[in-house]
Amino acid sequence: xxxxxxxxxxxxxxxxxxxxxxxxxxxxxxxxxxxxxxxxxxxxxxxxxxxxxxxxxxxxxxxxxxxxxxxxxxxxxxxxxxxxxxxxxxxxxxxxxxxxxxxxxxxxxxxxxxxxxxxxxxxxxxxxxxxxxxxxxxxxxxxxxxxxxxxxxxxxxxxxxxxxxxxxxxxxxxxxxxxxxxxxxxxxxxxxxxxxxxxxxxxxxxxxxxxxxxxxxxxxxxxxxxxxx
Length: 229
Fold this sequence. Notes:
By secondary structure, this protein is of the alpha+beta class. It is built from five helices and 13 strands. The strands form four sheets. A four-stranded antiparallel sheet has the order 1-2-3-4, covered by helices on one side. A hairpin with a 5-residue loop joins strand 7 (78-83) and strand 8. The N and C termini lie far apart (46 Å). 24% of the residues are buried.
């Protein structure tokens, strides 16, 4: 039977606001946790058997069971866990787990692979965002997460060549991660132009991205045919 609870963090975050957490037990082995703060809602499904890297304890643990209270504290659900790389067991609150994922997801957006695009954007008169890629000065471009986000929103957060999904393979660690490939080689671009995040960019895993850049003239279509064969 489904259960749910709401928990507001006892200690306010910087600025005085307190995140609110919503927990819903989908089953005896699955918990949907949602963190809401400053207008941002972030959700994740935790499952028994799932492995999770805790930021506070700096260790990899595996969720062994789902509990509907944490001792005598009013902080919602928690997990019984066992250490993966060393002996021992422990407890992990769902609030702590969703906080770890939230901050890792936000911080992870700052990481860009060396293969990825470097672009800048500007606002047009019609208030529609356009993405500009221009000539290079000392091989330096301004990176723009907006074009990357628009590309991923359209295609999905998985490789468009081999179908690799970082979330499915790496669990929580892979949440929201994928590289973005600029289809037209940068050396062919002689002047600034408007980048179309749908036509000019495409999400790729690190392996397929490397293979694209390894051979001059390699395209997404050709690489997909190689992988499918």
